[in-house]
Amino acid sequence: MATLFDQAYDSREEMLLALRNYAISQGYAITIIRSNPNRNVCIGCDRGGQYSDRINAAEGAKRRKTYGKWHIKVSNPYHNHELEDNMIAHPAARTITQEQRATIYHHLDENIPPRQIISLIKKSDPTILITPMDVYNLRKSFLREQLAGLWTVSDLREFMTSTFPSELALCVAEAAPILHRCLLRLGSFPYHNDPHPTLSLDVLRTGMIILLRLDRDNLLDPEIDEASLVFPDRLSTQQQLLLFQSMTEPQGTFVNPSRSAADDHHVGKALEIITYGNFKRNARFPTAVTQGPKYPPVEHFPSSNSTLTTGSIPVEDFRPLLRLMLLTQLYVAGIDPDNFTSLLSEIEAATDCLLTTFLKGEESSNAVSFTPFANALSKSVPNVFLGLPRLLGPLHSVKPFPSATPPSSLAVAQEMLKRLFTPSVKTQPPANGLIMNLPVLSRLSMILPQDFPIEAPEILYVSREVDMENLKSYLFKTSKARILLVSGKTGQVPAIFGVYIPIGCSPATLNKPSVIFQLAPIHRSIHQTGDLVPSKEPFVEDSACLTLALGDVTLVLRQGSMKGSLNAQFGDGTSQEVVVDAIEVLSFEGSFVCVNTFR
To answer: Which of 84, 375, 442, 592 is the most buried (most CB within 10 A)?
Structure first.
């Protein structure tokens, strides 16, 4: 009968396993003394001496690969110690296979104690030699491997800053905590209100799909109305709620004693998605499918608490995100964040104004609650998160890397990402006016229809005082889309108001999708959603006055002995009087530029 020393082995691993099992059965353990994996390996007893040379090993077996097979050659069969009956004290004898390691990792992931794991392993392999300390060491290895696949706040911060210019690194870094929390909670869908403790790659992938809406409304049903034609990416009520919940600080496990269908909305959507693909195709007849087992009803699962709105978003987290959205807003129009590096003070002021729309009536609050959050997304800044693809696109984009060879260093990889995620279409930033600049343009982009060519303004009229005759001639002589900007001071506080007049629309009758807005000292916008509200005919009634009305807001611009004034009247009975110091009329015409990060 052939022994293991007479056999030829197809692989190095097969031969090592056979030799280890033989050694243990004889009362000793072996260890690799020196190895050349593709040619030969010198093996010795774990209590043996030192390896001396390739020809005369002090003690052990040398295996040489010939003709594609591995063979065992014994150089010294003698031992300088008694053979043992119990080999568990030998670490070399306590070697486990990859399959056994995977099984132990699985049990560790289920928090099973080490001694119980040993009992479970020995049921399938009674001959295995393993101690509780071995399992503890494997647990350390398991935790290290787990952490290697996790994204911490620092990891996300480092990745995002690598795709931005160094001047904007602080702006990006300060938004990392809320974005990490948002991705972690969305990645835990439908249980985002009781999220995973760590952001693994799978959780990150799911969070990306939901946050960037890469599922194209398969997850949450859009609300079909007329506004969707003007703001196609405007968040629905369900999407606003999900986004708000993902940004709030976790409140711990919430148990609703009287759950309703609305409370289970998200877990119901998750069941719909997995049920849709719950079938198996016939390998020979692909059109023939076999339906999988039926899933339990929604009530069988824990509630997703989908209607939960009691949380809040800390302002210290939310403000950096708004600032970052201002920097990335124009990327979709071909204007990269690099253009803002010299405008950081203006961005800070614009962020403070923008934040007020999320704190309506709660300006002194240190947190954003759901009602003003939803109102802001519905009425004031429907496009506020349009810059997210620029921020997170490098994590998902299908753009190919310029080389198949991995980058030689982190610095090289970061520089590659910066080059890769510059806009595919470069747009020259418009020149500054008395009022217009890039931060103002970003905020207008958050307000105006998405197909508006915001990146190509033409300044028709500029003045530091109200000259009504010239102003009206420029406002009424063209049918192009126009924006009227008026700046000044109310008391000692700077103020900016404006009106968006769509193409083919007269200022005398502001129709859809006209907008009246205020950019300073607070941010608000009023969109035309109801019946037309006619303005006073400026030429007929008063040659020194221009009245523009929309919804429950009326702007009255007057020419005076000094520079002129603007009176803003709001539906809640309040009003503001502004001493004008600058007026601009901008015209917009051109092809709509849209940079798609994922193409």
So the answer is: 442
Separation of alpha carbons 360 and 523, rounded Å: 10
Count of C-beta atoms within a 10 Å radius of residue 248 = 26
- The span from the CA of 183 to the CA of 86, in Å, is 52
Q: Is 462 helix (H, G, I), strand (E, B) or coil?
A: strand
Distance of CA 313 to the CA centre of its chain: 17
Beta bridge partners of 577: 567
Rounded Cα distance between 330 and 231, Å, is: 16
What pTM value is reported for the model?
Answer: 0.72
Question: Long-range contact list for 78-87, CB < 8 A, 24+ apart?
Answer: 79/28, 79/45, 79/47, 79/48, 80/47, 80/48, 81/28, 81/47, 82/27, 83/26, 83/27, 83/28, 84/27, 84/28, 85/27, 87/24, 87/27, 87/28, 87/29, 87/129
Nearest to 578 by CA among 499, 516, 521: 521
Contact 271, 299 (CB under 8 A): no
Half-sphere exposure of 235 (CA within 13 A, CB side): 27
Residue ranges of alpha helices (H) inside 187-264 are 201-211, 227-230, 237-247
Strands (E) in 67-142, as ranges, are 69-76
Rounded to the nearest angstrom, the gap between the alpha carbon of residue 550 and the centroid of all alpha carbons in its chain is 37
- Stated as kind and residue range, the H or E segment containing 481 is strand 481-490
In tens digits, what is the pLDDT along the chain, a chain of 599 residues? 567 777 887 777 778 778 777 777 767 777 777 776 567 788 777 666 554 444 443 345 554 545 578 887 877 777 767 666 665 655 655 666 677 777 887 787 777 888 888 888 778 777 677 777 777 777 777 766 665 667 889 888 988 888 888 899 999 999 999 999 999 999 999 988 888 888 888 899 899 888 888 775 566 555 444 444 445 566 788 889 999 999 998 766 556 667 888 899 899 888 888 887 777 777 777 777 788 888 888 888 888 888 989 889 999 999 999 999 999 999 888 888 999 999 999 999 999 999 999 997 666 689 999 999 999 998 889 899 989 988 887 777 666 777 777 777 767 776 777 677 666 678 888 888 999 999 999 999 999 887 667 777 888 899 999 988 889 888 887 778 889 999 999 989 999 999 998 887 777 666 556 889 999 999 988 876 544 444 444 433 567 888 888 878 888 899 876 678 888 888 778 889 999 999 999 887 755 555 555 55
Q: What's the alpha-carbon Rg for the chain, to the nearest Å?
A: 34
Query: Are the C-beta atoms of 27 and 21 separated by less than 8 Å?
Result: no
Instruction: Give which of 289, 288, 268 is closest to 277, Cα–Cα.
Output: 289
